[in-house]
Amino acid sequence: MAYSNYYAASGLFHGSMSSVMGTQFDILMVGSDPRLLGTVWEKVESEVQRLDKMLNRFDPESEVSFVNREAGHYPVTVGEELWNILLNCKRYNELTEGYFDITLQGFDQVLLTEEDKSIFFFSESLHIDLGGYGKGYALAKIRELLEENGIGKALVNFGNSSVLAVGTHPCGEYWPVGLDNPFTKERIADLKLSDSSLSISGNMPSHPRHIVNPHTGTFVEDKKMVSVVAKDPVVAEILTTAFMICGDERVPVIASQFDIYEKHVYKL
């Protein structure tokens, strides 16, 4: 279900989708032209739905679901966009010492063939899961749409875990974003975002075992939360997953491979 409204008194346009990419989606855009903002919202809504249709492994009609069903039997040729995503995921896997892994079993179990842009699984039990990549990728695509349409101030939010700040808050020098401890509800950090992206990953009371260490195949059960602020929302997204899994001593080593603004590991 989608909702949108323009608040003339504050010059704010709010668009929302209650369930897409597995969570709620919200966008605030600042501007004085409600018709333009409404048109941009329609483009954003369409783009998010398109990406969900491609990347959602729980949708039996998505491209990723087709890959997961068939790639263990024969090489599956994928579209140009998904091919580039797979190549990026392989590169990020290497840069994060294998802690970011969309296969959860190791990229050595996957054959990517450039000639026909195909993917093949060496194990029929293997599947790819882009849940730790897709929202960051969607934020990057949304940022392109906003820039193309001249939107200079906006805040985009996937379920309070993947956030894009374009420009600054209309009444300040940054967009303020607070982080709360999911177990105690106490505030643990106040971040200031401007032309940057924030990703948050962690275990919660409702989902205490949802992140898998691809090196061991076991769930990460530590009570902790990770936040990363970066220019590139994809980088922020994949690093929070990697930092949740790797030991504290590997965090600065892996971080040195990327251009990021902030990183924090919170013990809950």
TrEMBL record:
<dbReference type="InterPro" id="IPR003374">
    <property type="entry name" value="ApbE-like_sf"/>
</dbReference>
<keyword id="KW-0479">Metal-binding</keyword>
<keyword id="KW-0460">Magnesium</keyword>
<keyword id="KW-0285">Flavoprotein</keyword>
<dbReference type="GO" id="GO:0046872">
    <property type="term" value="F:metal ion binding"/>
</dbReference>
<keyword id="KW-0808">Transferase</keyword>
<dbReference type="GO" id="GO:0016740">
    <property type="term" value="F:transferase activity"/>
</dbReference>
<dbReference type="Pfam" id="PF02424">
    <property type="entry name" value="ApbE"/>
</dbReference>
<protein>
    <recommendedName>
        <fullName>FAD:protein FMN transferase</fullName>
        <ecNumber>2.7.1.180</ecNumber>
    </recommendedName>
</protein>
<keyword id="KW-0274">FAD</keyword>
<dbReference type="InterPro" id="IPR024932">
    <property type="entry name" value="ApbE"/>
</dbReference>
